[in-house]
């Protein structure tokens, strides 16, 4: 009889462990509506240090600087310094999303001397409306020392 109880306990423990691992693996990623929290301080290619906030890029894309790609930002939660509205510089259209706000950040992979720094389109960030800023991310005009090459 004790052997059956031990076997039953081991089976129950194995089942519980399997369920815990499955739950951990299947836990959904949190995709906020807008930006949140502190993404820490980051130094750009000019040596300026900025505080940042987390935002969710629901799709990856090019980070632009002066009309050329500075690098590629992967989908997922990334930090961003600020956002700026650039009239005449439309974001790439994503479905029905339209915008001319761009978010300053550093790409995950760099393709030029700016080390991936540049502008990421608001149309690829969770929480924005058409031609509206992304909630929770400051405007670049509030930063005293800020390089402002166009997207």
From TrEMBL:
This is Secreted protein. Residues 1-23 form the signal peptide. Keywords: Signal.
């Amino acid at each position: 009889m004790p052997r059956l109880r031990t076997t039953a306990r081991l089976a129950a423990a194995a089942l519980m462990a399997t369920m815990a691992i499955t739950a951990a693996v299947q836990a959904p990623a949190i995709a906020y509506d807008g930006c949140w929290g502190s993404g820490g301080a980051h130094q750009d290619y000019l040596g300026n240090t900025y505080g940042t906030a987390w935002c969710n890029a629901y799709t990856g894309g090019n980070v632009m600087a002066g009309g050329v790609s500075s690098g590629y930002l992967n989908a997922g939660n990334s930090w961003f310094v600020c956002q700026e509205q650039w009239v005449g510089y439309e974001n790439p259209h994503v479905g029905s999303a339209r915008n001319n706000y761009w978010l300053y950040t550093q790409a995950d992979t760099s393709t030029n001397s700016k080390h991936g720094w540049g502008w990421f389109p608001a149309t690829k960030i969770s929480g924005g409306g058409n031609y509206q800023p992304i909630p929770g991310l400051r405007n670049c005009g509030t930063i005293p020392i800020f390089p402002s090459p166009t997207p």
